[in-house]
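Let's study a protein:

___
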Amino acid sequence: QYCIKAFVSEKAKLEMEQEEEHYVLSDIKHKVIILRNYSIEFRAEEELKDCEFYVLIQQFRILPMESNIITTPFCNKDYAVREKIEELWKSHVAVIDLKAMSCSDVSLTQLLNVVEEEN
């Protein structure tokens, strides 16, 4: 069992406050929520250690019960997840490196090497 960082979109916050007259966004801590519309996102940074997966919540519903508070590790610490983060980070760095080079500085061999690494 893992936990993951989540961000609530402004639209989801406004919808929740309109539908749930008894709650404000800060009330969702330790509540059971149903995710109706969400996506798993990847935050790419210059440093590998700063990269992470997170959930972007577009629509949700609060249930009137509290969850049992259990200390669980973040999913981004899992070995398989760390491997995927490293793979995506390498791809991100390669794209940044390509953008940093001007067209005249890039050889066909360099472009093919990047494509090969991504596959």
Remarks:
- The beta strands are 6-8, 31-43, 52-66.
- The mean pLDDT is 84.
